[in-house]
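Teaching note: in complex prediction, the entire set of molecules is handled at once rather than each chain in isolation. The prompt given to students was simply: 'Predict the structure of this complex.' The entities are:
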Amino acid sequence: MKFLAGRILHSLFLLAGVSLLCFLFAALAPGDYFAELRMDPTVSNQTIAGLRARAGMDRPFLARYGAWAASALRGEFGYSLAYGAPAGPIVGERIGATLLLTGTATLLAWLLAVPWGVWSAARRGAWLDGISRAILALLLAVPDLLLAIVFLALAVETGSFPAGGMVSRDFSSLGAAAKLRDAAWHMALPVAVLVLGMFPVLARHVRASVAEALDSPFVLSARANGIGERRLLFRHALPAALNPLISLFGISVGTLLSASLLVEVVMGWPGLGPLFLEAIMARDFAIVLAVVMLSTVFLIAGNLLADLLLYRADPRIRVRS
Amino acid sequence: MAVALLVALHAAILLAGVLAPYPYAEQHRDFPYAPPTGIHFAGLRPFADAGHRYPVRFFVRGRLFGVDPPGVLFLCGSDGLGRDVFSRLLYGGQVSLFTGLLATVVSLSLALVLGAGAGFFGGWTDRILMRSGELTMAVPWLYLLLGVRAFLPLHIGTGEAFLLLIAIIGGIGWARPARLVRGVALSGREEPFVLAARGFGGSSFYLLRRHVMPLAWPVLVTQATILAPQYVMAEVTLSFLGLGIGEPVPSWGNMLAEARQYYAIVSHPWLLAPGLAVIPFLLVYLRIADGLLQKRR
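The expected output is the structure of the full assembly:
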């Protein structure tokens, strides 16, 4: 329990630090949302000063940070000037779409990677393992960006998949089953790109850690006791190889909000990615900060989850702390 | 083998001025979206075939090969403005690779100084440095990259953008390697030869520079092979999103941005060339990093 409290406290400090740092950076940034307005000769400096005052931009740094932190705690994350509304709900609307995409992809990637990695670790040195490693290396070297563009082009070329978007135009008029099918159909390509991006990383880690476990003496003794190969792999080697995989799982969960940015932008998925990019272009710092903070919360929470799982899975950690 | 290939690939990019048949901004207005030029051989002599046959000449106009106008030679086709994609690929590689590599140097220099300092001096220095490192690692990498970029001016010249990208990409990635260097320094300061040098009256700064930092070399080399491809991709990503190097100077990222209009690549698939060009680089770096990690184990 003390371990848990310590970890949570540490995470909160980290979060506060990141928020302060981000806010400081935003405050130091040259140019703001009104930069474009300033170029307009018909708008006087007084008007802009008035607008800035109304947005609270002329107050001292700490007061602004305090106000922002309070609104972040309320879930508002400041006021988006481009949308004329609190940033939190705007970002919140997009989170669902992103999580749907990355959640599915992460799940699929893990379901593929674990058997693949274990299987390939069991055949270390064999030519099949060599082929599998070559495939993984190649997949790792193909940029997500390229995959997304190629898949999109294929979708347009063949016409069998929709090119971008999350649902068809007539979505609201469809029945429940048709709605599900429509959404799945739109998800297929972005998810495929994400899985192809995540899977090689995961499979390589699974393979490495299982291979290491297979080298240990207890596996040799289990084998000598006549335990079957499959049971040996999944009941003896895999649990022993779990620690690095749990950490990796934590990162997987932690990057749920951030993994799909590029894919979303290229494939026109209405998630956080396009919103973030538009906010950057418009210099709408409230949205930028909200997205960065939320993705940070996720990453920290993912790491925390990994720590807790490790605590459960590995008695050695319990003894040490 | 992999190292030789790596050197060869980088040399090809470095020699873009000689290897590329055209300057990167030269437009051939009669040839927008021209497909790759066919090369035929008459005996041993190659011809560029675009309706009419033009002999490929070697060592012309200070370049390795080319054809005399009005003939054109587009090994990877041309883009919408009639610029040779192959030439732009080589010149763009200079931008993308040098951004990535210089950012790696920046990152690792920071990691070396900060990490070794933290490990060697310990105490408050250590705590402050490592906590601030944790802060940068708590934000997802791509969001941190874009976030930092967001707070800096958007419309800037190419030279400034180049330096800015190096500073951003290099500046935010120091924490992870710094941690490793710190570990090395932590054990290094207890080494007998360091203690001996201290006994002879070596100052902390001298010990750090002469005895502790060299211990971190293997870590730095391994980290460089891991970071360099990641940073090259960071440049490609930023330029692709319009936050990096701008036209007319090519980079693999802003070249790929042209392929983003899917109707463009369906009919002009050669615009994907910059994306494909990244693959051999990433593969070779991956291979070397794997080898180094295995050797250290």
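Point out the following to students. The longest helix of chain B spans residues 85-121. The mean pLDDT of chain B is 80.
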